Each structure stands twice: as C-alpha cells, then as structure tokens.
Amino acid sequence: MGRTLNAEVGKFKLGDRVTVKFEDRPGHLRTPWYIRGKTGWIERVHGEFLNPESLAYGRDGLPKKTLYLVAFNQSDIWGRTSNADKLLVDIYEHWLDPASN
Amino acid sequence: MARGHHDVGGLPGAGPIDQTEHQLSDWEILADAVNQALGAKGIKRTDEMRRAREEMDSAAYRDMTYYERWIASIEAILIEKNILTKDEIDRKLREFDAKWGEP
Amino acid sequence: MTTATTEHGHDHPKHELSHCARRIYAIRDLLLEKGVITEKDIQCQIEYQEARSPANGAKLVARAWVDPAFKERFMADPKAVCAEMGIDASAINEFVVLENTERVRHMVVCTLCSCYPRPILGRPPDWYKSFNYRQRSVVDPRGVMREFGLDLPDDVEVRVHDSTADMRYLVLPVRPAGTEGWSEADLAKLVTRDSMIGVMDPLPAISE
Asked: What ipTM was assigned to the predicted interfaces of this complex?
C-alpha cells in the first residue's frame, strides 16, 4: 500500500515506539482518554488527513496531520491481562512523542 | 477539564450487550437522511456534529436515544451557522401541537 | 412519505411523537421552506442508505475466500475492489480490511461515537452504538465475544481496533471448515454482519 510504505510521510516509521501525550484541553479531541500517556508502537502509517480538531469548528482542517495506527499491548493499558491481546488506535502525529526508554 | 461524556472507552460499570434491534421509526430515518443531505451539500461536516454532541448537556447525552442526539446536534449546528433560529423551530413545533395535539 | 419509509419505517401517528422526534419534522419543514435542501435531496439519502446492507460485505468476503488473487487485491485496495464489484464505497475516506486467521481475531469499535463502514454495511446495529459496547470492547473484548457465542482460547490473539479517525475497518473472517467447493452465493450466507464487525466468527457449515 502506497501510504504504508511511503517513508517520507510523517516523522514516525513502522515499529517506532511512541508515547501518547497526556493532554487535557478543551476542543474536539479524537484521542481517547484511556490511551493518553500510554506507550505502544507504530503499526501502520495511514497518511495525511485534515485535522478534525479544526474541522469541528468550521475551520479548514489545515495543516494536514499524519495519522498512524498505533498498537498497544492490552497488558500495558489496563494492567490486568496476561495474554498477547492488542489494542490499536488511530492517532494523529501531534499526539505522539518518541517513547523514552 | 476532564474526559468528555462521549469518551467512554474503558469506563467501568458497563453491563451485558443488549442485542435486540429495533426497526427505525420514520422520524429516525428522516433524521438520518436530513443529516446526510446537509453533509452532501457541504452545509455541515461530521466533525461539527460530533463536537455538538460532545457539547451537549451530559445528562441529556446519556438519556437520549441515538437519533435523539443526532436531532439535537443537527439543531445546534444549524442554529450556530445561522441557518435556522431556535424561535423558528419552536414556532413550527407549536403549529404541530395545534395540528396534531400535544405529545 | 415514500415507499422506502413505509416499507421499512415504523410509523407513529403524529400525535404520539415526542417533542424531540417532532423537532426533526420542524427542522425538515423549515429547511425545505428556505430551500436549504430539497425533498429530492432527502429522498436520495433514504434510497442510498436502503441500498447498503451487510450483503455487500458478505459478497466481498465470499469472493475473497474462493479467489486468492482477489483477496490480495481486496486487502491492498479495498475501495477500488468495491468499485469493481459494483459496491459504491466512495463515501469512505479510507478503508482497511483486517484479515482474521486461526491465530488472530480482530474486533472493531468506535468508543468516541459510532463510526462504522456504513457505505458498505449500511447502518450499524443498536448494540454497536450502545454505551456498554463502547465501554467494554476495548477492555474486555473476549467477554463481549463470549456474549456473541465466540469463546477463544488464550493462544489466539485478539486485536481490537478503536476507529477514532477517518479509517473504516472491515473484518475478513476465517472461512468455515467443511466449505470446500461451495459456491460464492452459499458462502456469502455464512458471512454475518457481526462476523464482519468481529464479535463473532461466521456461521458454521452445516451439512444437510
């Protein structure tokens, strides 16, 4: 798929470990509360999309943001699973930091 | 701030999934169609509708049915964009009450 | 209103409608009076929605099961393949097919609202939009699957997708055992809507 293999799009690559920012601000935010502050890895680079945080207020959604499929171990999010189950969330680049470890 | 009332992933206290399905009423089909028609004409975006539902009164958000929330957000966005006014809608409703009787 | 709604809608006598339900009639009348939308615009949308159903997805899945080259193209560019099959998926911004295997099962939810691949599958079921599903699927997907009759062993990986953006996900379920040589039409009958959301597997092949 063109988007996934395009290494030029966005600052994160497949496999990069990322931490979701813990931000708490007003507005139309599409990063669920339960995933904020959690660490996972880039599973897919979806490509660039208009920013819903701007579109929601009748603005033009520019500049576009790179959208990623970020995968997490369920055990890392809720702390009680011991199996290999995963949770995958579509997250915009401005919500992600490189994981520090 | 704090999490929005729509941001429910992982919240405790959820019960079994009720798998019964209901046939849509005419008013629900109409709400769906009006929403889609407004979108097709570029009058509103889905993102604006979602934001309107996030801005609703939280108790109303939990108590209303799915399409009732859609109607509330359609109304909020049309008023916000000065396409309709609340007065016009209320006046039209009073006409209906006169025509059909009170609900 | 139209044949579409009278066939499929449950019509309340007007005096029984709640104030909330009446509001959409008021809004509709005002929008028509002001020329913001037309009756035809509304009717078009009703017909568009009526034409969309899980049968579209079932058709795609059944063909993917019998034709490996088709499956590869379907996974690589689902929108283009839909167009080939006469399924209008143009309203989906981005479409991703999630392939189940014996070792992996996918499940799709939208915890923030109720995003769903409507242009393919039609309207989502009530339960998909419910708070219980939205709350539980990310934290207890196996419990949700058990309610739908799917009890997975621990060595099968469950992958839950929360569709928070413009991607719309469709699960490509595992082909049931004992269906070798079946026609696409018969295979499609095993592909339930719920198996394409991922809360259950397709129906088993039952030999008559």
From this structure: 0.95
